[in-house]
């Protein structure tokens, strides 16, 4: 007898999060995959007895075609996490230096430690943006620099021209991870032209993921693209049979449902603007977030106290700030009611 679906999800610890509208600590999409993606996932179960492609060549082509780059420029991994580790394994040796902002995506220090790198951290400026001058200075002896745009946790972006100026200041053999995990939430005028950028800077790897806007965090799929020479080096580290069939099918189905996906992304961005506006009316400032979350800097009443007992799962920072994933109106209401009650 087949166990009920919920029991199976529960057995792997996925159920509480999947149905919890207050789980706002990981910047996931709060909605289940699009109907077309779900039915594609159901349809691929009959192929589960077979390995996926030895190296994900077809997926690579699919992504390349979608993003307007050559397929030999693309690498694929288990989330952006897998891609970043692949880059670190390919280009660093233990003891090399990695430069990153602070605060930043929690993964970077973990990945650096796994690759046995030294880390140099550079505080954000007062607007929650990268201090690119200080990072360029810190990167003189570094092998890798991570720049995350929009930034996690502040959601801010630096103008494309500033990023380009920063890149011209770096040594040509310092690899730059331009982490665009949230790029799909950016308005067109704020996006960087990735293919042109990597054509100009042979040391830049643009990193993207299907975990955020595409809402497929549980399937673990991400990719990177860069100049062909560097990509060849990175592809050598491509894990055999490393990307499961369901992940590959979900990408194909997502690309076929692009207009619904864009509609969902617009809805999440609108919800973020709404929450920001309502918080502002309550006297609460947030950084200029451009992704699917808001960052509220610390203030006299500590945020953990404000949200205590609300049931909300949020990411609290040592400097007193808090990051809140945005998406559903239900979670927006819960955040607003906790803040209102504490005002
Ligand atoms: C900036 C940034 N990069 C990478 C990741 C990792 O994403 P993935 O699920 O693709 O490994 C995250 C996840 O929160 C992130 O915020």
Features:
Aspartate Aminotransferase, domain 1; Aspartate Aminotransferase, domain 2; alpha/beta; 13% strand; 343 residues; 14 helices; binds pyridoxal-5'-phosphate; 3-stranded antiparallel β-sheet; single chain
Word description of this protein:
Residues 22-316 form the Aminotransferase class I/classII large domain. It holds the Pfam family Aminotran_1_2. There is one protein chain. Helix 9 (194-200) links the parallel strand 5 (175-179) and strand 6 (204-209). The radius of gyration is 20 Å and the shape is globular. It has 2 domains: 19-32 and 258-342, Alpha-Beta Complex (Aspartate Aminotransferase, domain 1), CATH 3.90.1150; 36-254, Aspartate Aminotransferase, domain 2. It has 14 helices and 10 strands. The chain is of the alpha/beta class. It is 40% helix and 13% strand.
Structural class: alpha/beta
Helix content: 40-55%
How many structural domains are formed by the residues?
2
Mean pLDDT: 94
The CATH topology of the largest domain comes to Aspartate Aminotransferase, domain 2
Q: Roughly how many Å apart are the termini? A: 53 Å
The CATH homologous superfamily of the largest domain? Type I PLP-dependent aspartate aminotransferase-like (Major domain)
Task: Name the ligand types.
Answer: pyridoxal-5'-phosphate
Largest sheet: 7 strands, mixed
Count of DSSP helices?
Answer: 14
> For this entry, what is the oligomeric state of its chains?
single chain
Keywords: Aminotransferase, Pyridoxal phosphate, Transferase
Domain Aminotransferase class I/classII large: 22-316
InterPro entries: Aminotrans_II_pyridoxalP_BS, Aminotransferase_I/II_large, HistidinolP_aminotransfase, PyrdxlP-dep_Trfase, PyrdxlP-dep_Trfase_major, PyrdxlP-dep_Trfase_small
Cofactor: pyridoxal 5'-phosphate
């Amino acid at each position: 007898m087949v166990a009920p679906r919920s029991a199976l999800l529960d057995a792997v610890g996925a159920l509480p999060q999947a149905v919890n509208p207050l789980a706002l600590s990981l910047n996931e999409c709060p909605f289940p995959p699009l109907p077309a993606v779900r039915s594609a996932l159901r349809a691929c179960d009959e192929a589960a007895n077979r390995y996926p492609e030895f190296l994900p060549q077809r997926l690579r082509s699919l992504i390349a075609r979608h993003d307007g780059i050559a397929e030999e420029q693309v690498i694929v991994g288990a989330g952006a996490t897998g891609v970043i580790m692949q880059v670190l394994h390919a280009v660093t040796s233990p003891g090399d230096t990695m430069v990153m902002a602070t605060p930043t995506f929690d993964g970077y220090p973990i990945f650096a430690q796994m690759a046995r790198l030294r880390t140099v951290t550079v505080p954000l400026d007062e607007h929650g943006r990268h201090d690119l001058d200080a990072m360029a200075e810190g990167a003189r002896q570094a092998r890798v620099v991570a720049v995350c745009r929009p930034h996690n946790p502040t959601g801010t972006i630096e103008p494309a021209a500033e990023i380009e100026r920063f890149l011209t200041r770096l040594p040509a053999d310092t690899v730059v991870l331009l982490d665009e995990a949230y790029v799909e939430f950016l308005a067109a005028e704020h996006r960087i032209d990735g293919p042109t950028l990597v054509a100009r800077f042979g040391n830049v790897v643009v990193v993207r993921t299907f975990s955020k806007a595409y809402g497929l965090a549980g399937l673990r799929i991400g990719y990177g693209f860069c100049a062909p020479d560097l990509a060849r080096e990175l592809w050598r580290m491509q894990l055999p049979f490393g990307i499961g069939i369901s992940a590959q099918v979900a990408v194909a189905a997502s690309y076929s449902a692009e207009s619904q996906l864009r509609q969902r992304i617009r809805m999440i961005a609108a919800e973020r603007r709404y929450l920001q506006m309502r918080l502002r009316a309550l006297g609460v400032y947030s950084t200029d977030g451009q992704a699917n979350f808001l960052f509220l800097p610390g203030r006299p009443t500590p945020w953990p106290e404000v949200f205590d007992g609300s049931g909300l799962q949020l990411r609290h920072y040592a400097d007193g700030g808090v990051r809140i994933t945005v998406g559903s109106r239900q979670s927006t209401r819960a955040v607003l009611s906790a803040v209102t009650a504490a005002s």
